[in-house]
């Protein structure tokens, strides 16, 4: 009988404040969708870093005969065969180095033509203008500085380039988008909490006669407050479910269909459905607990029992 009464009171409360309840659901859904999206964006950045950092190399460019005018370690002309042997031997001695691949000037020219053959500059570049290089794959790409310190300025070495730096601008942009999403999520969360508190206040005021009677007949504080808390929980749960739907639809339309980024950007390793599904329970739990706690705190002020 008590459970039936609580459920009936929840229904009455939701119908009585239908407009505000709908506003709570929408604001909770948007804030949680942004929260889930921020978590997925962070996971996407992590996946891309693991994927690309494992493929990028540290490149040690060697001096050629045209680099003497550049000064530095190339003032004595092109790298000698002995210098190349010493550089390769020293690279292989480093514990952080996984593999070392030597690229000749002819191979570098071929790769350049494959990538930029349609440009005007490619038509005037000759193989003797290309630099020989060592492509070094590290066990830990974060330790690039060890190689840079050891070989920068060395005789025969023109420059040491970490290809990882090319990706940093992309990752920084994605991190910035993540921060922006979290900021908007926080703003929406504040709006949702204010709506929840206001809804509870209006509901408590409109049902003050019923709660007064319940207080007179000896009902406990928990029993009186439960319908109000459950109303907020139901609204939050609906908002959480709606947020889950937004995340699923967003993953589907952005990556699998609609924009179809998976096909238009084949070199990007996008997060899978498993990452999205892992986030959904957390979104639902937060959607259920956040309004419940906000309602409980509001009731201490607006419903004295």
TrEMBL record:
Subcellular location: Cell membrane
Pfam families associated with the record: FtsX (PF02687), FtsX_ECD (PF18075)
Signal peptide residue numbers: none
Segments forming domain FtsX extracellular: 56-160
Transmembrane region(s): 20-41, 179-200, 237-255, 275-299
Keyword terms: Cell cycle, Cell division, Cell membrane, Membrane, Transmembrane, Transmembrane helix
Membrane topology: Multi-pass membrane protein
Main location: membrane
Record InterPro entries: ABC3_permease_C (IPR003838), FtsX (IPR004513), FtsX_actino (IPR047929), FtsX_ECD (IPR040690)
ABC3 transporter permease C-terminal domain location: 183-301
Function: Part of the ABC transporter FtsEX involved in cellular division.
NCBIfam families found in the cross-reference section: FtsX_actino
Family: Belongs to the ABC-4 integral membrane protein family. FtsX subfamily.
Subunit structure: Forms a membrane-associated complex with FtsE.
Name of the featured protein: Cell division protein FtsX
Organism listed in the record: Streptomyces pyxinae
Gene name per UniProt: ftsX
